[in-house]
Amino acid sequence: MGSPLDRARRIVIKTGSALIAAKGAPRRNWIDGLAADIAALRAAGKDVVWVSSGAVALGRPHLGKGSQKKLEEKQAAAALGQPLLMSAIADALAPHGIKAAQALLTLEDTERRRRWLNARATLDTLLAAGAVPIINENDTVATEEIRYGDNDRLAARVAQMLSADVLVLLSDIDGLYTADPRKDPAATHIAEVLELTDAHDAMAGSANAGAGVGTGGMATKLAAARIAFGAGCATAITLGDRPRPIEALRTGERATWITPSVSPDTARKAWLKGHLTPEGAVLVDNGAMGALLKGSSLLAVGVTGVEGRFEKGAAVAIKGPDGVVIAKGVTAYDAADVQRLAGAHSDDIEVRLGYRGRPAIIHRDDLVLGS
Ligand SMILES: Nc1ncnc2c1ncn2[C@@H]1O[C@H](COP(=O)(O)OP(=O)(O)O)[C@@H](O)[C@H]1O
Ligand SMILES: N[C@@H](CCC(=O)OP(=O)(O)O)C(=O)O
């Protein structure tokens, strides 16, 4: 059967602070090993996104003395540590001919549809260019209310946004146990979860019950796995501190695999179907209707007009020439721009808008057929 990693097209890997840093310095040998793993995945044609913690841990020694418990002290440490984190990772990827691209996200980038479209387009562009996006929370500006707070969930949101097939959470433990093995020596390992229940949450205890340097614990890993699960993405929780942790996972080293029964594509379409309440409509001609039914994106050339006012990122209905709703989707343009683009060929988009817009009014990934 092989590993889910072999079948995956897109993989998100999350590394916790304790793997990245020791005594305030980057663990270069370990980072080099993971970089070699990532190079092997890239060579096999897979897209890889690396969500890495460690900015606070690497920045702390440079902030001076003091407790460094206050939020602004952690944020300042992150500002000092983030470039150190990036350069350690970029240096490790460079010998493999892989470019590292920094992307610092805040909660809004994955929760607000408009920003989500932008973040996704940028990350897709980086992946298409062969780069590995290195993602962290934008700790320096994220305030308590608008924080993911832990990179486990951030990584799951990224996996969801990018329709990844596998999320790997590299941890200081080789998976989920029936209880915290640090406290209960009788705890047993769980190799596979096909449905996440409250019983699993009870095993993990509360958040922040982890080893110390980071902010996660097993509870946030399960919260992350739940987000990924809903997006049709499998999660592996496994021991990170191995020389080649991804290769070890691929060849069957111990892990907990949390595996959904549907694909990312099916999950996304089901989500769209249930969550989109149209705020307006885009009117299309017969040609566009035929293309949509065949699974294409909605291009400006087939648009004849709009109904109502809506923002970029809003849910809209798509209506055929007879006024019947044939699909719903998330629009990449606001109503005024859709009107401006009606009937335009792709080459004309820039002239009509005054900027270089996206080719699709609604991308096929953001579209579901039916009313
Ligand atoms: N049921 C459980 N199974 C496994 N680990 C658990 C469980 N409950 C609590 N934990 C704790 O969670 C820790 C992993 O979280 P954490 O140290 O935050 O990892 P990371 O630094 O990789 O984010 C484990 O070392 C373990 O002590
Ligand atoms: N964004 C923070 C890390 C937050 C976090 O989730 O840490 P961890 O539990 O080690 O993955 C940083 O870079 O220090």
From TrEMBL:
What's the EC number here?
A: 2.7.2.11
Q: Which GO terms describe its molecular function?
A: ATP binding; glutamate 5-kinase activity; RNA binding
Q: Where in the cell is it found?
A: Cytoplasm
- Leading EC class: transferase
Catalytic activity reads: L-glutamate + ATP = L-glutamyl 5-phosphate + ADP
Whether ATP-binding counts among this entry's keywords is yes
Tell me which Gene Ontology terms the entry assigns under biological process: L-proline biosynthetic process
**What pathway does the UniProt record associate with this protein?**
Amino-acid biosynthesis; L-proline biosynthesis; L-glutamate 5-semialdehyde from L-glutamate: step 1/2
Please tell me whether the keyword Hydrolase is annotated for this protein. no
What are the alphabetically sorted keywords of the record?
Amino-acid biosynthesis, ATP-binding, Cytoplasm, Kinase, Nucleotide-binding, Proline biosynthesis, Transferase
Q: Name a single GO cellular component.
A: cytosol
Q: Give the domain of life.
A: Bacteria
- In which residues is ATP bound? 14, 171-172, 215-221
Domain PUA: where? 280-362
* Sequence positions that bind substrate: 53, 139, 151
Q: Mind telling me which InterPro entries this protein's record contains? A: AceGlu_kinase-like_sf (IPR036393), Asp/Glu/Uridylate_kinase (IPR001048), G5K_ProB (IPR041739), Glu/AcGlu_kinase (IPR001057), Glu_5kinase (IPR011529), Glu_5kinase/COase_Synthase (IPR005715), Glutamate_5-kinase_CS (IPR019797), PUA (IPR002478)
Family, according to the entry, reads as follows:
Belongs to the glutamate 5-kinase family.
Q: What does this protein do?
A: Catalyzes the transfer of a phosphate group to glutamate to form L-glutamate 5-phosphate.
Q: Quote the protein name from its UniProt record.
A: Glutamate 5-kinase
Encoded by which gene?
A: proB
